[in-house]
Amino acid sequence: MYQLLKPLLFKFDPEKVHYFVTRNLKRFNRFPGGSAVSRAVWAVNDKQLERTVFGLTFKNPVGLAAGFDKNGDTIAEMANLGFGFIEVGTVTPLPQPGNDKPRMFRLPPDGALINRMGFNNLGVDVLASRISTYRKSAEAAKNPVIIGGNIGKNKVTPNEDAVLDYIKCFDRLFDVVDYFVVNVSSPNTPGLRALQEKEPLMHILNTLQLRNNKNGISRPILLKIAPDLTDDQLNDIVEIVQETKIAGVIATNTTISRDSLTSDPKIVAETGGLSGKPLTQRSTEVIRYLSEKSGGSFPIIGVGGIHSEQDAVEKLEAGASLVQLYTGFIYEGPGLIGRINKRLLGKVK
Questions:
Q1: Is 279 within 8 Å of 298 (Cβ atoms)?
Q2: Is 263 marked active-site?
Q3: Within 13 Å and on the Cβ side, how many CA atoms surround 186?
Q4: Per-residue confidence of the chain (349 residues) as pLDDT tens digits?
């Protein structure tokens, strides 16, 4: 069904289509029996799919990457499509509109997207409230799902004060999320990637780790990294994870590279982060490098260019414990989630 609708949807602005689809998905799930139908059609439930990673038990290893649901609008609906975990955000302390529109572009010949959204979100207070409401809902009781909080800094916050923004988001979300992701790798907030350098990154992560104990409870903290890092920078990442004792890494975010693209040069020239099939190989290379360099000493969530069951398997074989979808979900539809899980169960060759 999705593949029949996709040519029509792809005729319109990507951001408008996103809100159109999610609004109607929410409407469908509100109909009596809609949620149950969604789960029956899309979800694959099997105990063999469960994974325990950084102390959390995931009902399956296929998650929704950050960026799709910045404000916690569709947690229940995404869970009903069969995702094993949902990562919301990136969220910032204060609401911000993001960059000027248009700010998302499709590259169908390349199976890719370019986005320069710029952390558009309603702020951490709204997100925390929505997650809390979801946790208390009947939907959450019927179909619970692991929720991660992806946190960033406001555009107007200078890098020397960035740690304060991460603290605000961390403190506000601590009681409602299951794990945290520190995002210093988006190319769409000026200067943000400078925080991937060892000294500022160690400061942010160590500060959060010092706060990471509330009434005897701590939350796994992960670091999301760019695919554009050199081997020396990846070596630093391994050292940083081991020294700060954070839970793991998400590899990778979008890339600023435009190598080997065949789409309209005018679209290729748009600024922003590139995601989708052009990232498949590089993100898998980063996963393998980190896994081998660290001796498998920390978990890795693999994301970037997963458009098929084989793409997901290759990331898991490279050393990922879990995988996440975004662009592949948009291009292939919700059926991709179930196909990956069935492949992992040996039901799809």
A1: no
A2: no
A3: 25
A4: 788 899 999 999 999 999 999 999 999 999 999 999 999 999 999 999 999 999 999 999 999 999 999 999 999 999 999 999 999 999 999 999 999 999 999 999 999 999 999 999 999 999 999 999 999 999 999 999 999 999 999 999 999 999 999 999 999 999 999 999 999 988 878 888 888 888 889 999 999 999 997 768 899 999 999 999 999 999 999 999 999 999 999 999 999 999 999 999 999 999 999 999 999 999 999 999 999 999 999 999 999 999 999 999 999 999 999 999 999 999 999 999 999 999 999 965 5
Sequence-separated (6 or more) residues with CB below 8 Å from residue 213: none
Q: Which of 35, 38, 186, 291 is catalytic?
A: 186
pTM for the whole structure: 0.96
Cβ atoms 83, 142 nearer than 8 A: no
Element (H, E) at 200: helix 198-211
Please return the burial class of 4, using the count of CB atoms within 10 Å of its CB with bins 0-12, 13-18 and 19+: exposed
- CB-CB contact of 110 with 278 (8 Å): yes
Distance, in Å, from the CA atom of 18 to the CA atom of 95, rounded to the nearest integer, reads 20
